[in-house]
Design a protein that fits this description.
Blueprint lengths: L2 E6 L5 H15 L6 H18 L5 E8 L2 E8 L18 H8 L4 E4 L13 E8 L8
Antiparallel strand pairs: 1-2, 2-3, 3-5, 4-5
Amino acid sequence: MPEYTLRCPPLDTTARIARDFVTSVLRALGLDALVDDATLCTSELVTNSCVHAKGTGAVLLLTAEREAVRVTVYDEDRTPPALREGYDGESGRGLWIVDALTDGRWGTELPAPRLGLDSNEGKGVWFELGEGPNGGAS
């Protein structure tokens, strides 16, 4: 199963670079049908990490197999993300978007592996799209 890694510093341009990275990898693997949903979900997770996690940024790990992709964004903050009850015009809907596009196939894992982060005390937030390991389609 191919794995691709991107270092995501806490900068204003990071979400765009992460979207471009995911787009390039998925197109190179012939997974064009997953590009739109994967880039939107990636953008939401990377943005959340840059806004809420303290530290030196995040690491994006993309794994692909046949017709499926899994993207995990690792950061140094152990606080798990949560779906908010409501949201305002500026924020709060990112995880709802991820949840809807992935049919609930997202979650967290603790602790985060080092992967170039300053510590391994953080978390990973992941999503899956496509024909998953349990045969579910997204």
